[in-house]
Design brief:
This protein is an alpha+beta fold.
Length: 371
């Protein structure tokens, strides 16, 4: 049995057991955390930070969580809305005038947050390096025409989500999304989560490990639809080697380049599950949390090719909300039980080749502790 380190309330011992089982099977190194009422009830980690299994996964090991970062971006927008600085029902162009081009003058902020704005792919950059220049990416998005009438359909905004919301935040606050998150979210909570990563944290970063039998040329793609077809990839192909690069860490790609661990992911997101506060720190009002779980769109997602329920910033699953990242990371919040569960790991799994239930196994183990 893999040695699991950290704290676990006796009621949540099944979370420890689930993490140990994953590390004994598919995982190399991983962390799992559960927060209830804004306080930790499980904060666990184990395994190794490298593919050679020579470096232990420590309490403060960081990992890139890919699209799990979108949960953090959405929280920033909801905080500004709660403060009255951002109107979710206003046109994006009210804050970002250039965005009105190409028939987008009536695209609403909430449509950007619910993946219904019609901008699921970037028309400009063709290489990963093209994502690193904020001004050129956002200028390209401002000029771009929507793929469908905004608000009438959803299509997962895999990369564009962070640039769109990030530019709205920048226009309102004068700060980049990563800077706003660091100052307004991470610092007050004491959360070890970073959107973009500075060099002083490099020494504790675990690289992502490509799926078994694949190399670090393995690239993120939209999943196949139920009929086996795929959406044509009109965007940039991001490989594991890109997500592990120094240039990626230093950039601002807020939809996907967040770095943390299960503890920091769960701590931040527990704010929304716990009526706006965690650990005695209030970030927004109870009412300000509600858009996170109120359905904004239900139907087939044109990119993912499956039925989805999107809220203002999150995916909705029954009474829970959250989202996961390429390779397997996940966070799920349940406002009815005031619980948030997070899982972050270095061993990626290719969902085209095998089902990846690891994060959900941690979530289900956490639910057993509530009863």
């Amino acid at each position: 049995m893999t040695d699991i380190k950290g704290y676990c309330d006796p009621r949540f011992i099944s979370v420890r057991e689930a993490l140990a089982a994953l590390l004994g099977k598919d995982d190399v190194g991983a962390s799992a955390a559960v927060y209830v009422d804004g306080e930790p009830v499980a904060d666990l980690w184990g395994g190794y930070a490298d593919a050679n299994r020579s470096i232990s996964w420590e309490r403060d090991t960081l990992i890139g969580v890919n699209s799990t970062t979108k949960n953090m971006v959405a929280l920033c927008a909801l905080m500004l809305a709660d403060r009255g600085e951002l109107d979710l029902s206003a046109p994006v162009a009210a804050y970002w005038p250039e965005f009105a081009a190409s028939g987008k003058e009536n695209v609403l902020v909430r449509q950007v947050l619910s993946h219904t704005a019609g901008l699921p792919a970037l028309s400009g950059p063709t290489t990963v390096e093209g994502l690193y220049t904020w001004e050129s990416v956002t200028a390209g998005l401002a000029a771009q025409a929507p793929e469908w009438e905004p608000g009438t359909a959803a299509g997962y905004h895999a990369l564009t989500f962070g640039f769109l919301v990030g530019e709205i935040v920048r226009r309102i606050t004068g700060r980049g999304l990563g800077e706003f998150f660091a100052e307004e979210v991470a610092k007050p909570l004491g959360a070890d989560f970073h959107i973009g990563l500075s060099a002083d944290h490099d020494h504790r970063l675990a690289p992502l490990i490509p799926p078994p039998s694949l190399t670090d040329d393995y690239a993120a793609t939209a999943p196949p639809r139920p009929d086996g077809t795929r959406r044509e990839n009109t965007g940039v192909a991001i490989r594991v080697k890109d997500a592990n690069s120094v240039a990626w860490r230093r950039a601002q790609i807020p939809a996907v380049n967040g770095f943390g661990n299960a503890r920091s992911v769960a701590l931040v997101q527990s704010v929304l599950a716990n009526q706006g506060s965690a650990g005695g720190v209030r970030l927004l009002s109870p009412q300000g949390c509600e858009p996170a779980w109120q359905e904004a769109f239900r139907g087939e997602d044109r990119v993912l090719g499956v039925p989805m329920s999107w809220t203002t910033g999150f995916a909705k699953f029954g009474n829970t909300f959250g989202w996961g990242g390429w390779g397997g990371s996940l966070v799920v919040s349940d406002p009815s039980s005031r619980m948030t569960v997070a899982y972050a790991m270095n061993q990626m799994i290719d969902r085209d080749r095998q089902d990846d239930h690891r994060g959900m196994e941690i979530v289900m183990a956490a639910y057993s502790g509530l009863h």
